[in-house]
Amino acid sequence: MKKIEAIIERNPDGGYTAYCVDEPFFGMGETAQAAKEEMLEGMRVLVEVCKEDGGEYPAWLDGEYEIVYKFDTQSLLEYYAGIITPAALSRMTGIHAKQIWSYTNGVKPREKQVRKIEAALHKLGQELTALSL
Fold first, then answer.
1. pLDDT digits 0-9 by tens, 14-41
2. Which of 23, 26, 79, 127 stands the most exposed, by the fewest C-beta atoms within 10 Å?
3. Are strands 26-29 and 2-10 parallel, antiparallel or unpaired?
4. What is the pTM (predicted TM-score) of this model?
5. Model confidence over 108-128: pLDDT tens digits?
6. Rounded to an integer, what distance in angstroms lies between the CA atom of residue 8 and that of residue 18?
7. Are 17 and 35 in contact (CB under 8 A)?
8. DSSP bridge pairs for 4
9. Cα(20)–Cα(5) distance, rounded to whole angstroms?
10. Separation CA 126–CA 129 (nearest Å)
11. Would you give the end-to-end CA distance of the chain in angstroms?
12. Where are the domains of the chain?
């Protein structure tokens, strides 16, 4: 199965862009989800139009593929702001809440801080998937 890396970024106008790193696909939208959906729709439309017109398109689009989405830190924190507050993320990472707030507002964190945030979110995800009610 082909893995496609896609980046999701917050735009200066407040919208989002999703784009594939090594493939010519992108989407834009008011939310990260809308940008992802537009990118996927562009992929679908390309296949449809090329099939109708006899054009060429990447063969992997006919098979199974996985898109791995990567956020820049600011976009991720903004996207999940209603779910994960700076205070909650501070408790999970040990990074001061004011520092996390500054990352949400455009200050670029050092790589070490990015890895702390990523590890804390992955740990939370693992704990949540292990739950049952």
1. 899 999 999 999 999 998 899 999 999 9
2. 127
3. unpaired
4. 0.75
5. 999 999 999 999 999 999 999
6. 4
7. yes
8. 67
9. 6
10. 5
11. 34
12. 2-71, 73-129
